[in-house]
Amino acid sequence: MAEAKVAPRPLSPHLQIYRWSWTMAMSIFHRATGSALYIGIALFAVWLVALASGPATFDAVQGFFGSPLGYLILFGYTWILMHHMLGGVRHLVWDFGYGMEAVQRINMARFTLIGSIALTVAIWAIAFLLF
Amino acid sequence: MADNRADTRVSMRTPLARVKGLGAAGHGVEHWWIHRVTAVSNIPLIISFVIIVAALAGSSYEQAIAIISHPLIAIILILAVISVTNHMRLGMQIIIEDYVHDKGYKIVALIVNNFYAVIIGVACLYAILKVSLGRILV
Asked: What residues in chain A have their Cβ under 8 A from chain B's Cβ atoms?
């Protein structure tokens, strides 16, 4: 039986070959934040199920989220969420065919990072003031 | 008159792939589209979610029950859970298909991804409904 010939296929250089750019960094970060949110949503599920289970279970879980480590996780989760949301809006803008120029791309990538930090700080500032 | 169009017989597919009949499953557009639709629905739902979570921070059991069982909040959370679990399932599927090349591991990872999304979704929805309806049905 004749062996199937392996046709010469185009190879693409891997990540470490490229010089880091804003758009590349934010693209990678979008995936990383998406993956983190994917795992992090389990914390919300645990909190909800604890609430549905009764006061004793709820107090234990709420106690954890009220600890310094819990607040750190919630703060980090907020930032990751805001970053992924703004990154997603950036992708939606591209889907409509806008923001493709080099300057626009870089500015949008920078805005994703700066905007996500600003939103996170604003949310927690309001949360501490109001609640 | 010369025909300057690209040769349509030239394909990116390898002869081996053609022989095996492998290729797109034909569900790519639906996947892409639902990913985008849930991305859009996520925006208002996540903004609401963050405000709700901020209100819940440091609350007692009774306060938390009162907040979650409010119809408006329960409905927003149910919509958010449905939108988010679908969006994350589609997103993780892309990541798996990009990075897991071994066929066996890929299939396992894709199944686990579906299970995880469904478990998270059902757990959240059940808890929200129990907390909300528990007050009515007692």
From this structure: 4-7, 9, 31, 34-35, 37-38, 41-42, 44-45, 48-49, 51-52, 55, 58-59, 62, 65-66, 74, 78, 81, 85, 88-89, 91-92, 95, 123-124, 126-127, 130-131
